Amino acid sequence: GKGSTADYVEVDELEKMPLSEQKKWEKDQMSSAVFSFGAKDAVKKDEYELLLEDQIEFIQALQLPGSKEEKKEPKLTEYQKKRLDIEETKKSLPVYPFRDDLIQAVRDHQVLIIEGETGSGKTTQIPQYLHEAGFTEGDKKIGCTQPRRVAAMSVAARVAQEMNVKLGNEVGYAIRFEDCTSERTIIKYMTDGTLHREFLSEPDLQSYSVMIIDEAHERTLHTDILFGLVKDIARFRSDLKLLISSATLDAQKFSEFFDDAPIFRIPGRRFPVDIYYTKAPEADYVDACVISVLQIHATQPLGDILVFLTGQDEIETCQELLTDRIRRLGSKVKELMILPVYANLPSDMQAKIFEPTPPGARKVILATNIAETSVTIDNIIYVIDPGFAKQNHFNSRTGMESLMVVPISKASANQRAGRAGRVAAGKCFRLYTAWSYKHELEDNTIPEIQRINLGNAVLMLKALGINDLVHFDFLDPPPHETLVLALEQLYALGALNHHGELTKLGRRMAEFPVDPMMAKMLLASEKYNCSEEVVTIAAMLSVNGAIFYRPKDKIVHADTARKNFNHIGGDHLSLLNVYNQWRDSDFSTQWCYENFIQYRSLRRARDVREQLIGLMQRVEIEIVSNPAETDNIKKAITSGYFYHIARLSKGGNYKTVKHNQSVTIHPNSALFEELPRWLLYHELVFTSKEFMRQVIEIESKWLLEVAPHYYKQKELEDSTNKKMPKTIGRSSRTD
Ligand code: CDP
Ligand code: MG
Fold it and tell me: Which atom of ligand 1 approaches the CA of 350 most closely?
């Protein structure tokens, strides 16, 4: 590919070769060093095939239990075969031999730290073992938290299948805006954020006998706060068992935090993984991923490929490129199934990644770092790691939080490589240099609590009656200034009074499982008589998957379709347009298709919207519609997001009002060419610069109306008038 410096045979060249030559080339490639990544030679051919046979045997052993005595046995039905299969798989997991010891350890200790490699069966098996051992007797549940929603859903589905029950009955899951549990649920998977919220309605977790804080090493904000909360509860609920489960070496640290709780180690089963680096840095890692996948597919023995990308957009780009290249190669290559995995992936598509690869075919999974430890996919032999992940970063000096793509840590890189060695010896292709691994990557990822905005967490803790946050039992405390800033923000939003206590408004805000700014916006819609519109906007903003569909071969059509929804007032109102027109089409799929809209995203927005309406009713806000009152709608939005204001400065650039930081309107915005004087943005995304995503035009005087504590007349005076000729203003641009 252009721009990519990986120096191996171009697949384009391969495409041009006659078939016979291609075969020969492939053969040559197999017997010599296959990749010229780095200095290290590839594994010798025989060695590799040997391991692969092992793997095939291993897989056959799982799939055909007792095949030797098949003649004597009565013929099994499909159903019986499937059940046997599941039993065999369960028994093959590394945790299985430790089943009884583990149960005993849980009986003997109130808090237990569990350490075991990804894929050992911690998440799927331990809750089942404890259920079988009687821990769900007397109407008690076993809870298990996951940092990621996809993991919570897919693991629950798997366990329901293993236990042969319907998902949502005995085994269920709960994630934000979705509760798939019932009265009968005894094993409940949930996101850490969901458990956090459960504390509001059940502060002592009385309905649980066991709580497993799983994937503790991920150190998400919610998990970190849960550590403090469950530790506190364990003191007065001596019957509650706590399990802290982690994939990596943080166990000692967890043990110390939980008053030297014992560590239960599940020995891993790991095959060697050869690591290859590129000789030079890659200019375009998505492109480099595509080439590497094709290269592996053309030259390497069967075995699935896992590619780590940073988000849905990148995954979709990669998927399109790959699909196109594979189609052009046609029957010259074996079947390649391309499957994406990311946080907002619809559940029917999630299931696909766990289905076994058909014989003779190869699967390539394009995943975010969700596949690093949260989700285990069997049969991965090759890992491609560009070395990046998306992270939220909060700068307490500027008060700006922004999502950006950052290099991963060494710990992450090693986890990623480890995914290749679960079922056989594997290979990991790092699309960065050995030098940069050694010198540029940090050892460990910084825990979220030390790098993101704490507004949400502080509001929750205050709602739980925890007033003294400075002395809260944190595993790693957040920076003092971040904590202070969160308190200030909640004060400005009206959620806290000047003693730092929760106000009535704050209590209502805490009912909503959303950012405090969004909660405030929802509550303010009551005053501005536009709750219906604001709820829709909130739902559309919460989808965070792409709303607009932009296929490479129809970019012009897609962009035209998108422009039809543009609202002169800004993107929030454009989103409202999209939703309302979809609703008027009776939620039609066809309508979405014709308008280049992602049907799945809208369906999700509709679900979220319903949940939000339920919550609005709970805080006794009537749903009132006033679609024509766009100023009112914008004022309600401003009531929540008055922190996110930027003002036009020289040369069509924007500066944030409070900290004078440069920000730019995202090219996708309806206001990209408009340049209004005052803008409110929903979020910042940092790529080449700080982009404001989803913006509306506001009037500066609204800020004094909605946030009198925060803004003073003086700082809102339109200094731009003096500096700039009037013609640069918006009026000259719109006509
Ligand atoms: O939690 P841990 O990483 O130790 O392992 P796990 O998630 O319990 O996975 C154990 C096994 O269950 C693996 O072989 C997974 O591939 C399988 N699994 C599955 O087939 N489907 C899922 N949705 C989740 C796990
Ligand atoms: Mg797990």
Answer: 23
Ligand 2 centroid to Cα of residue 58, in Å, is 22
CA 646 to ligand 2 center in whole angstroms:
42
Least Cα distance to 196 among 463, 437, 516 occurs for: 463
Q: Are strands 362-367 and 304-308 parallel, antiparallel or unpaired?
A: parallel
Structure tokens at 43: 């594994």
| Substitution candidate for ligand 1 out of 89, 158, 173, 248 with most atoms within 8 A of CB | 158
Tell me, rounded to whole angstroms, the distance of Cα 437 from its chain centroid. 24
**Six token digits for residue 464:** 């739980």
State the closest ligand 1 atom to the C-alpha of 89, by its place in the atom list counted from 1.
Answer: 14
Ligand nearest to the CA of 119: 1
pLDDT given for residue 718 in this prediction: 61
- CB neighbours of 613 closer than 8 A, spacing ≥ 6? 535, 623
How far, in Å, from the CA of 129 to the mean position of ligand 1?
Answer: 15
Q: How far apart are CA 272 and CA 268, in angstroms?
A: 12
Assigned token pair, 696 = 């509306």
Q: Transcribe 538-553 into DSSP letters.
A: HHHHH--S-SB---GG
CA–CA gap between residue 549 and residue 405 (Å, rounded): 22
Nearest CA to ligand 1 atom 24: 155
Centre of ligand 1 from the C-alpha of residue 278, in Å: 31
- Name residues contacting ligand 1 (CB within 6 A): 93, 116, 118-125, 154-155, 157-158, 354, 376, 378
Structure tokens given for 396: 């307490």
| Encoded tokens for 347 | 């559940």
Please name the residue ranges forming H helices in 528-626.
531-542, 555-563, 571-584, 589-594, 599-618
How far, CA to CA in Å, does 23 sit from each of 14, 29, 330? 10, 10, 15
What residue type is assigned to position 528 of the chain?
A: Y
Shortest-distance ligand to the CA of residue 268: 1
Dist. CA 633–CA 572, nearest whole Å: 9
State the distance from the centre of ligand 1 to the C-alpha of 276, rounded, in angstroms.
27
User: Which DSSP category does 387 fall into?
Assistant: S
Element (H, E) at 125: helix 122-132
- Burial profile 621-652: b = 16 or more Cβ within 10 angstroms, e = fewer: beeeeeeeebebbbbbbbbbbbbbbbbbbeee
Contact 376, 422 (CB under 8 A): yes
262 and 273 in contact (C-beta within 8 Å)? Answer: no
Residue 444, number of CB atoms within 10 A of its CB: 15
Which residues of the chain are modeled with pLDDT < 50? 1-19, 22-72, 721-735
Q: Which of 206, 210, 161 is nearest to 188 (CA)?
A: 210
pLDDT of res. 656: 93
User: How remote is the CA of residue 376 from the centroid of ligand 2, in Å?
Assistant: 8
Model pLDDT, residue 142: 98
The ipTM value here is 0.98
Closest C-alpha to 669, from 586, 575, 533? 575
Identify the pLDDT of residue 726.
41
3-state secondary structure of 180: strand
243 contacts: CB under 8 Å, gap ≥ 6: 106, 111, 112, 113, 114, 126, 210, 211, 212, 213
Q: How far apart are CA 245 and CA 385, in angstroms?
A: 25
* Positive or negative: CA dihedral 715, 721, 724, 726: positive
Parallel/antiparallel/unpaired status of strands 336-341 and 304-308: unpaired
Q: What's the whole-model pTM score?
A: 0.81
